[in-house]
Amino acid sequence: MKLKAAILVKKPIETVWECWTQASHIKEWYHAADTWYVPKAEVDFKIGGKFKIRMAALDKTGAFDFAGKYTDIVDHQQINFTIDDNRKVVVQFESVDGGVLIKEQFDPTSQQSPEAQEMGWQLILQSFKKYVESV
């Protein structure tokens, strides 16, 4: 069973793509709550390239890495990657009236309920939307 999250971002695909794929931008939006931040993001954005995003709590109570490898990239349309725990993720970008519809499908982990996982990924998408629409 694939889990899903989606959001409409009111910016052109070029802006959305740049903010999604460049480490300098990822550091600004990749968190599910304002009590977290990204002290470090490494992105080798190419097929076979790796990424590693370090997320940390502002109050220093926790931190973890989200890392994996890009398995397929279709410019301005789709990014596929495998997370280091072997879960697969597909992110689709569709230009629509008024912006870009981003749809994510991902394999679940057994460590959280499916609802909690979808909510977490949705919150990260909301953070992305807020950031991109402000630049």
Number of strands: 7
Please count the helical segments: 3
Structural class by secondary-structure content: alpha+beta
- Please state the average pLDDT score: 96
Distance between the termini: 35 Å
| CA-based gyration radius | 14 Å
Largest sheet: 7 strands, antiparallel
Tell me the strand order in the biggest sheet: 1-7-6-5-4-3-2
Q: Mind telling me the CATH superfamily name?
A: START domain
Number of domains: 1
Nutshell version of this structure?
With 135 residues, the chain is of the alpha+beta class. The chain contains 3 helices and 7 strands. The protein has a single domain, classed as START domain (Alpha-D-Glucose-1,6-Bisphosphate, Chain A, domain 4, 2-Layer Sandwich).
What does this structure look like?
It is a single chain. The chain has a single domain (3-132), classed as Alpha-D-Glucose-1,6-Bisphosphate, Chain A, domain 4 (2-Layer Sandwich), CATH 3.30.530.20. Helices cover 26% and strands 43% of the residues. It is built from three helices and seven strands, in the order βααββββββα. A seven-stranded antiparallel sheet has the order 1-7-6-5-4-3-2. A hairpin with a 4-residue loop joins strand 5 and strand 6. The longest helix has 19 residues, at 114-132. It is globular. It starts with a strand and ends with a helix.
Would you spell out the secondary-structure blueprint of this structure?
Elements: E1 3-9, H1 13-21, H2 23-29, E2 36-43, E3 50-57, E4 63-74, E5 78-83, E6 88-96, E7 99-106, H3 114-132
Antiparallel strand pairs: 1-7, 2-3, 3-4, 4-5, 5-6, 6-7
